[in-house]
Design a protein that fits this description.
Shape: globular
Largest sheet: 7 strands, parallel
Strand order of the largest sheet: 3-2-1-4-5-6-11
Order of helices and strands: HEHEEHEHHEHHEEHEEEHEEHEHH
CATH superfamily of the domain at 8-186 and 227-250 and 289-303: NAD(P)-binding Rossmann-like Domain
CATH topology of the domain at 8-186 and 227-250 and 289-303: Rossmann fold
Distance between the termini: 42 Å
Structural class: alpha/beta
Radius of gyration: 19 Å
Number of helices: 12
Strand content: 15-25%
Helix content: 40-55%
CATH class of the domain at 8-186 and 227-250 and 289-303: Alpha Beta
Bound molecules: nicotinamide-adenine-dinucleotide
C-alpha cells in the first residue's frame, strides 16, 4: 500500500474517487471538476463511446468493461476508492429496444458488478447517473417530482430504474450509501450523437455544415435540457450531501424540438435551412420536464445556465473544434 494512502483517508477533504464511464461526455466533465477540487480521480471505461481525448492527464485511467467482474475486482483492489461515481452505461434507447438483453447486461448486471466491487473495497458512497427523462414515462403533469411512480417506456429506462431499485434495496443491507441523480437531457461540449440529448450535438454539427436537420415527429415534443456544467455541480454537491436520496437534476422548463431548432439555427448564423420531418421514434416520451425542488432543499443545488447561454457555449466549442 502506498505510504500516503492512510493519510489521504484520514484527511476528509481529499477523496479517492473512481468514475465509471469517466471517458464519456458527462463523466469526463465530472472527473475534471473532482480533480480541480483536489481529489484523486481514477476513470474506468471501455471506450465504447468515450474517448481518451476527454481525459485530463491528472486522472488515472483503467480500460475495462463493467461486465468483466474479475477485472473490476482487480482495479478496485488497486485503487480502493472512497467514492464511486457510476456513469458507465449503454445509453441508446433505440439499441435497448433492439437488444434488451444487451442493455440489461450492461445497465443492470454490469452496474451491480460496479456496486459489488465498491462495497467489497469499503467505498462509503455510490453516486449513480440515472435518467429522469427515461424513468417516468409519459406524465400528465409537468414538471414531474420524484414521487411520480416510475413508468419507463423503453428497456433503457427500465434498466436504469431497476438498478435504482437494487441500490435502494441493497442500502438496507450494507454500505456504500447511494445518491441517485436522475438527469434530465444533459447537453454541452464533448457530447456524442447517441445519448438522450444527442439532438443538440446532431443539430449543431449539421447546422454548421449547412446540412438539413431531421426532426422526429411534428417538432412539438418537449424535453428538459440541462447544461453539463450544472450537472457537474450536482455531482460535486452529492459528494457530501443527499445520503440515500433520489434527486431530479434538470431545469423544470420544457423546450420543444422546434424551439430548440430555432435557437440553434439562429446561433449557427448560417443560411436558413428547412428541417426535414420523420415519423416519431418508438419508446420516446412526448413531453417532460423535471421538478428539482428536492435537489435545491437537500443538495443545495439549482440549475444556473439559461438554455441560450448553454447553447452558445456548445456552438462555440463546435466551431473551434
Ligand atoms: N446524456 C444525457 O442526457 C443523460 C441523461 C440521463 C442519464 N444519463 C446517464 O449518464 C451517464 C453518462 O452518459 P453520457 O451522455 O455521458 O454518455 P457517454 O456515452 O458519453 O458516456 C458513457 C461512458 O460509458 C462508457 N461505457 C459504456 N459501456 C461500458 C461498459 N460496458 N464498460 C465500461 N464503460 C462503458 C462509454 O465508453 C462512455 O465513456 C449514463 O449512465 C447515462 O445513462 C445521460
Amino acid at each position: 500500500m502506498p505510504l500516503l494512502e492512510p493519510l489521504a483517508r484520514l484527511f476528509p477533504f481529499t477523496m479517492r474517487i473512481l468514475i465509471s464511464g469517466g471517458a464519456g461526455f458527462i463523466g469526463s466533465h465530472v472527473a475534471d471538476a473532482y480533480l480541480s477540487l483536489g481529489h484523486e480521480v481514477a476513470v474506468l471505461d471501455n471506450l465504447a463511446t468515450g474517448s481518451l481525448d476527454n481525459l485530463d492527464a491528472g486522472a488515472k485511467f483503467f480500460q475495462a468493461d463493467i461486465t468483466d467482474l474479475p477485472r473490476l475486482q482487480q482495479i478496485f483492489g488497486e485503487f480502493r476508492p472512497d467514492v464511486v461515481s457510476h456513469h458507465a452505461a449503454q445509453i441508446s434507447v433505440v439499441d435497448s429496444i433492439e437488444s434488451p438483453a444487451y442493455d440489461a447486461g450492461i445497465n443492470v448486471v454490469g452496474s451491480l458488478n460496479v456496486w459489488q466491487c465498491a462495497r467489497d473495497c469499503g467505498a462509503r458512497r455510490f453516486i449513480f447517473a440515472s435518467s429522469g427523462g427515461a424513468i417516468y414515462g409519459q406524465v400528465e403533469t409537468s414538471p414531474v417530482p420524484e414521487e411520480q411512480p416510475a413508468n419507463p417506456m423503453s428497456p433503457y429506462g427500465l434498466s436504469k430504474w431497476a438498478f435504482e431499485r437494487y441500490l435502494t434495496l441493497l442500502h438496507g443491507f450494507s454500505a456504500p450509501t447511494p445518491v441517485i441523480l436522475r438527469y434530465a437531457n444533459v447537453y454541452g461540449p464533448r457530447q456524442g450523437r447517441q445519448g438522450e440529448a444527442g439532438v443538440i450535438s446532431i443539430f449543431g454539427r449539421r447546422l454548421l455544415e449547412e446540412k438539413p436537420c431531421v426532426i422526429f415527429g411534428d417538432g412539438s415534443m418537449t424535453r428538459d435540457y440541462v447544461f453539463v456544467k450544472d450537472v457537474v455541480k450536482a455531482n460535486c454537491q452529492a459528494l457530501e450531501r443527499g445520503d440515500g436520496g433520489i434527486f431530479n437534476i434538470g431545469t423544470g422548463q420544457q423546450v420543444s424540438t422546434l424551439e430548440l431548432y430555432g435557437m440553434m439555427e439562429h446561433l449557427a448564423a448560417k443560411g436558413a435551412q428547412n428541417p426535414q420531418f420523420a415519423p416519431q421514434r418508438e419508446g420516446e416520451v412526448l413531453r417532460i420536464a423535471l421538478e428539482c425542488e428536492r435537489a435545491a432543499a437537500t443538495l443545495g443545488w439549482k440549475p444556473e445556465t439559461p438554455i441560450v447561454e448553454g447553447l452558445k457555449q456548445v456552438m462555440a466549442a463546435m466551431k473551434s473544434a
